[in-house]
Amino acid sequence: MSLSPAEVQATSRELHALRDALPLADAPIESALGYAPGGLQAALDIQSSPIEVWRTRDYLVSLARAYGAPIPHFSRLSDAMRSRAQHWFGSWDVPEV
């Protein structure tokens, strides 16, 4: 399962929109996900492994629900695509909010 360049751009825009809606600095998000500084940006820019992109997406969605922030429509990282992604990449754990 790979994304076309247009899908990568759209997915990155969706993740950045979700991140931008949250009233948190990057550092606590990176810490929760176990990322080094800059790791969050790599995931948002689709420059990390697919599992890390999905973990980031899921954690940001959990944060958005906790803070009452809007959750964008995901074109490729939709809940409907989750089982397919897990088939390709394996499962992933998401930290609790």
Describe the structure.
- This protein has one domain.
- 58% of the residues lie in helices and 0% in strands.
- The chain has five helices and no strands.
- It is globular.
- It has helices at residues 5-20, 26-33, 39-44, 50-67, 82-89.
- The protein has 97 residues and is mostly helical.
- The N and C termini lie far apart (29 Å).
- The model has no long low-confidence stretch (mean pLDDT 94).
Quick structural gist:
With 97 residues, the protein is an all-alpha fold. The protein has helices at 5-20, 26-33, 39-44, 50-67, 82-89. The protein has one domain.
Please specify the SSE layout and strand pairing.
Layout: H1 5-20, H2 26-33, H3 39-44, H4 50-67, H5 82-89
Organism: Corynebacterium curieae
Protein name: DUF2316 family protein
InterPro entries: DUF2316 (IPR018757)
Q: How many domain modules?
A: 1
SSE string: HHHHH
**Count of runs of 4 or more consecutive helical residues:** 5
User: β content, as a range?
Assistant: under 5%
Major β-sheet annotation? none
Tell me, briefly, the overall form.
globular
Overall pLDDT metric: 94
Computed Rg:
12 Å
Structural class: mainly alpha
Please give the number of β-strands. Answer: 0
Low-pLDDT regions: none
Cα distance spanning the termini: 29 Å
Helical content class: 55-70%
InterPro entries: DUF2316 (IPR018757)
Protein name: DUF2316 family protein
Pfam families: DUF2316
